[in-house]
Every structure is written in C-alpha cells, then in structure tokens.
Amino acid sequence: SGKLRDLRKVVRTRMALVRMRTAIKNRIQATLSKYNLRLNGISDIFSSEGRQILEGLLCELPSHTRECLRK
Questions:
Q1: What pLDDT does residue 24 have?
Q2: How far apart, in whole angstroms, are the C-alpha atoms of residue 66 and residue 35?
Q3: Rg (Cα) of the chain, in Å, rounded?
Q4: Cα-based distances in Å from 8 to 20, 22, 26
Q5: DSSP secondary structure string, 20-37?
Q6: Which of 70, 66, 12, 4 is nearest to 37 (CA)?
C-alpha cells in the first residue's frame, strides 16, 4: 500500500541521516584526537556547552581543518 511504502521511505531516510550524523561526529572526534585536543570535564562535546568550548579550540587547528569543522 502507498502509506506503508511512504512510511518505509521515511524510516530509510531517517536511518541514512542518522548514519551521516554519526560519521560526521566520529570524524570531528578523530580530528580532535589527532591534534591532541581534549575537552576536559565535558561528557558530550556536541552539547551546547561542548560546542562553545569546541569553537574556542578551533583556533588551535590548521586553517584547512578548522574550515572543514566549521562546515
């Protein structure tokens, strides 16, 4: 039926988007680790507080890496 097909499409799209978000977060964490940057005391670097601290750490990265993380 059409409704079931639409629902399955929505679920597949959501799964794909969640996978992409996870991959991006993993790349950001790998980049921070590569440059030995730590967010001490922050359990989730993607919380609002973690993102503020992360923004402050961007100046310590090479310019090309910094621009990639900002996007």
A1: 93
A2: 12
A3: 17
A4: 18, 21, 27
A5: HHHHHHHHHHHHHHHTT-
A6: 66
H or E stretch at 61: none
Let me know: does 10 contact 19? Beta carbons within 8 Å: no
d(CA 52, CA 50): 5
d(CA 24, CA 1): 35
pLDDT band at residue 37, thresholds of 50, 70 and 90?
confident
Residue 41 parent element (H or E): none
Q: If DSSP codes are grouped into helix, strand and coil, which group holds residue 34?
A: helix
Long-range CB contacts (within 8 A, 24+) of 32-36 = 32/57, 35/60, 35/61, 35/65
pTM to 2 decimal places: 0.78
